[in-house]
Amino acid sequence: MKNLLLSTAIVAATALPGFAQEYTPDPNAQPGGMITVTYKDDVATLDPAIGYDWQNWSMIKSLFDGLMDYVPGTTELRPGLASSYEISDDGTVFTFTLRDGVLFHNGRAMTAQDVKYSLDRVTDPETQSPGAGFFASIAGYDAVTNGEADSLAGVEVVDDMTVRITLSRPDATFLHVMALNFASIVPKEAVDEFGTDFGKNPVGTGAFKLGEWTIGQRLVFEKNADYWRDGVPYLDGVTFEVGQEPIVALLRLQQGEVDVPGDGIPPAKFQEVMSDPAQAARVVEGGQLHTGYITLNVGMAPLDQLPVREAINMAINKERITQIINGRAVPATQPLPPTMPGYTDGFEGYAFDVAAAQAKLAEAGLADGFTTELYVMNTDPNPRIAQAIQQDLKAIGVDVEIRSLAQANVIEAGGAGQAPMIWSGGMAWIADFPDPSNFYGPILGCAGAGEGGWNWSKFCNEDIDAMAIAADSMTDPAAPERLEMWSDVYMQVMEQAPWVPVFNEQRYTMKSERMGGDDALYVDPVSIPVNYDYVYVTE
User: Which Gene3D superfamilies does its entry note (predicted)?
Assistant: First the structure.
């Protein structure tokens, strides 16, 4: 999306070129019915300020709304809980007018005060939100994170239906940030009532509301009959069954008992599925802005030494790893995927070279190697990829103990800085929005390196951070000089080697014969993995 921040003094959201006015209901949609979605692991939280993984992202998106939103199945911005907005000449003041008649699931009308409360909450250090850094451009953010203030000075309630947000600098990505789950609007009274259990008792304004949650068994979402968007959702509800092995889920889909296997097609069954025309017809493939990587915790010895990190980069046979997932990826050389603006063409990264890797270890005084741990999500094929990484590192004298855990436990260990190395598969980075900044702030920047953040390498370089801030302070997100600056950011990151970028993966999932809706909704780039608000059943 280009030119989100225009130079006119006042810009109404509905006038922006490329922005959808409102969603047109699918004429083929049949309202009603329930669907069943399976996952191996239970859900950690449904709190939009905290939830940040593949599994709960689309669930949270169906329970909550933000001021901005996306056209279903795309990365095109559209207004959400804001009916319109205005932007100042210098791109630093955003005035949002809220929609009338929006109700929380508890029946109370949403107001501008709820917007301020929600933004204050997500940036409050006590919340430990992994997305807090996204809001760093809002005036007063530093004072809140430093404990000098308890609310964002830049978020002002003008009246019940108007919020003014002032930035400390222009931010080319700000409207995208306001469409993230982290910017979802929540009611203070519900958070006060449930406290740290709000993630198990979510209250939002979304198309669905939580009807039941039996820990370790299932979650049931029910249609929000008072939803503010006309005509959706089409479904009466969604049942999420957890504790389901992906191979069992595929078998149940084949038997008509499951509508979407949330963990995707098991790699061991991929060729079998694709060779059967009846099953292949139900496969949905989509491109994604994705990078799978190994994080190297720069705060833990001996990974705190650059030559050691370089050695690990040189030791990994990326071509072999892509074969583990049936060739559904290409080897990566840098954090950005090839289709992302700012990608550095021609950069070869660290070549696979065992001898050079061994020399780097010797340079670090570790010619005899060392012992470390690799954390990995326990869903296939990730443990097998971890074993391949283990074998590669064994070849240079590094003994790796694999810790195969549920997704939530890996994320917790990474956020706490307890994991020396993490294979990100199953949790690997897929862009929240199509801008190069999104691969930096949360997972490589200083803001994401704090407790609970997703910068599991704990890498923090203030000079690179300053360059990233300068790039985002340009008002035109597509400006060539901005994209060149982002290219420089990632090249400098690679010089410090806090990651091993491994591959860029395509996305595959399946749906039952009775599922309706555009295929893009099943590989939705911002409602990963499925946009439940707009899919339907045909029987």
Answer: Dipeptide-binding Protein, Domain 3, Periplasmic binding protein-like II
